[in-house]
Amino acid sequence: MEQLWRNQTPVGKFLLAALSPTPQSQAALFAVFLLVYVSTLVGNTLIMATVSSDPCLRTPMYFLLGNLSFLDLCYSTVTAPKMLLDFLSERRSISYQACMAQLFFLHFVGAAEMFLLTVMAYDRYVAICKPLHYHSIMNRTLCSWMVAASWAGGFIHSMVQTILTMRLPFCGPNWVDNFFCDVPPVIKLACTNTYVVELLMVSNSGLISTSCFVILVASYTTILVRIRSPEGRRKALSTCASHLTVVTLFFGPCIFIYARPFSIFSVDKLVSVLYNIITPMLNPLIYTLRNKEVKSAMRRLRTKGITSRGKGNGLRCRES
After folding, report:
1. Which of 6, 78, 139, 283 is deepest in the core (most CB within 10 A)?
2. What is the reported pLDDT for 253?
3. How far apart are CA 151 and CA 285, in angstroms?
4. What gap in Å lies between CA 83 and CA 89, rounded to an integer?
């Protein structure tokens, strides 16, 4: 692994692209994205605190939601702080080692979130299609194992992507056509033929994102087909609407970026902003605004305070 880090390449750092060419617009973007990042931190931390402190939310669905919020927080933190610092710098650069680390954690957390969203779709399928057996199927042990499998799958995926990238020689140029280090723009800088590596990476990332998306769509279609009454379908669609929104916002850009040959388009930076910066902020808003139980739990947390979390055992909680 140490030899991979050294890579025997004269490139010690990479230069990152700016989102805007003028200093005035850079300052405006800094203010906007600082607000977005702070909102992401506050929103996802609030969901994690609410889920862990309220006894009414100690169910598989909210256990998975808390893990999703943690992944969103980590995912945004991989790229947002560096991007904000670069808004204040005239020369946006990142060392080779930091670039590879950013690439690794980006794919680690991103793939783990893909797998977790698939697990959440299975949870909703069991809850809606097999309600009488829900608690026996989706017990805490199974949920913990599925979350662990999501993290393990993300780690394996990221190791493959990172090792393939680190084995490439980089001898110049060193300008990355994006505001962070990702596989498509980085391997374009390698001073060797990368056709086979690109094919392997597209097969890896593209297959994972597309397969998870197909499984998600199939699960929701099965839910709607299994429910005969129009009223039941409306209820099922309402229950899954927040999840469907997250899936569309997250998987759409990922499939666009990773499930095609690594050709760089001008719209790629805008798409990257969507799934790296904006989506992690929208997830807590989508789930809380459409979920009465979470909003009620947040009101209880606000009125009683975190120090009184142990006094909620007398609450009567509605079964999910």
Report:
1. 283
2. 86
3. 24
4. 10
